Amino acid sequence: MLFANIDLLDENLDHRSGQWVGVRDGRIAYLGAEPPAGEEAAAYGEVYDGRGRLLIPAFFNAHSHAPMTLLRGYAENLPLQAWLNDAVFPFEAKITPEDCYWAALLACAEMARYGCVAFSDMYYHMDQVARAALDAGLKLNLSDSLLAFKGEGLADLPVDGENRRLLRDLQSAGDGRIVVDCNIHAEYTSNPRAVADLAAFAREEGLRVQVHVSETRLEHEECKERHGGLTPVRYFDSLGLFDVPVTAAHCVWVDDGDIDILAERGVFVAVNPASNMKLGSGFAPVPKMLERGVEVCLGTDGMASNNNHDLMQDLYLLALLYKGSTGDPAAVEPKQALRAATRAGALSQGREDCGLVAVGAKADLCVLDVTGPSWAPMTNPLVNVVYAGHGADVRLTMCDGRTVYHDGAWPTLDVERAKAEVDARTKRIVGEL
């Protein structure tokens, strides 16, 4: 595809007007203020008229539970522990592998609709989530959840064999779109032996790790009681988990010492503002993290605690809520927020050549319609994306140079069937409870 005469946000998220962007072999092969010369222009194939459009890097969802699309609208108005133990866990016990596939496929459709091309997922039946991502044409960092309540080591747990099977069967599938990570659900659902074993396994295999950290005050304080005053961050660090690349989700209740460790150890923090507010968990100290050099990325979390995969809503919240909560109108700047939703999310997944509009980068792109009333005047396009844009403004989503959403159509999947399947499967599970 050749994007013709289109405004864009470049690799620094700075605005450029009237650009030509050529996509070939899954990458951005040309970018300039003039069209490529004659025969080269024709080699790109379809020409996309860029008038009234803004090209930006596609979004990277750094923390999700895609199969939880089945639980959208379920388990409402509950604090986290009651939400998990009394509602979510009993529902999840009824979920089959095929349920996971259809729910993840619907999640992929929703993410593509809203300009997102990649997601980091923690759940079960992850081969089915990978199947959905491959069918949809998206990227996925998958991780099967480690749960250990009785002092078991990694070798004693089913997740050990599952991790090895996922590595054997799925690592780098879809021309590298599928990446296998490790996963520790949380401190309160694991034990020190299992954590240390998984950290060693990830180190030996060169894998990344996803983990929930300090999502609630209760989780944070009970961890200190269990482990001699160690916070979840200090606990995981003491067991060697941060010796490998880690994406720590939430980090709402981390203290100043925790933030220093996260910065020193290069931990990515996936913040989830919508989910944390909906569950009453609080606000991650993002301004402090950014100030101290922590790489902050952005996630939606699952659909029982956010209810949609429109990352532009989380982007808006990330840029706005800290101004109100700190009294500082410059607490999180628009460019910092948009970087969290794009480049930082890609880096958290180990995708070094993704998340930016630059020659040589993977063609992971999002086209926004900027002709609506909320976009005028276009005083600062970056600011408009963050504060005035909506997921509904997305007109085209491209992953690795392949169109996965275009003006109400999903070329890679049957969204109506996915909706019907998920609706029927949720009704079945609710009926079994």
TrEMBL record:
InterPro entries: Amidohydro-rel, Metal-dep_hydrolase_composite, Metal_Hydrolase, MTA/SAH_deaminase. It holds the Pfam family Amidohydro_1. This is Amidohydrolase. Keywords: Hydrolase. Residues 55-404 form the Amidohydrolase-related domain. Transmembrane segments: none annotated. GO terms for molecular function: hydrolase activity, acting on carbon-nitrogen (but not peptide) bonds.
